[in-house]
Amino acid sequence: MGVDLRPDPDYPPHIVADSLALPVRSGSFDTVLCTQVLEHVRDPFELVREVARVLRGEGHAVFTMPATWPLHEEPFDYFRYTRYGLVELARQAGLDVIELSERGGSIAALGQLIAAVGYDAAGKHAATRIPFKLLSTPLLVAAEVLDRIFFSRGLSLGYVLVVRKRTG
User: What is the greatest pairwise CA distance in the chain?
Assistant: First the structure.
């Protein structure tokens, strides 16, 4: 079941609602997937509490979110996260962290940022799109390879957070 506040008419969700007040009964779901949403809500603590509310006992939720990324979906781009902030979001909602992993390390993040900024400058234009792709693809491949060799979690594109609802 999908939820969205501002739905895409080509891909309508099952429910149009504010994720801070989901119109479903408590304990309705075994699993909640919340991908690339947390940075767009004005109260992420309330969102994670709401996810905890709709989970059944020992249910799981999977969140993905950026740590480093240019502004997007403006003006609804509010937050970026660290691993420590994510643990605190889960803790305050009564959720146990099962897994917390980076989506790429520092070198991959830098490569992606250079490509994203370059795309905004040159990749969106028809005349420069192909040359941009020809230049950015080797950069992204090299950044990915180097990231695996010299992984550092000091800078990351984002995180995957898997949590479980506490019972009892």
Answer: 61
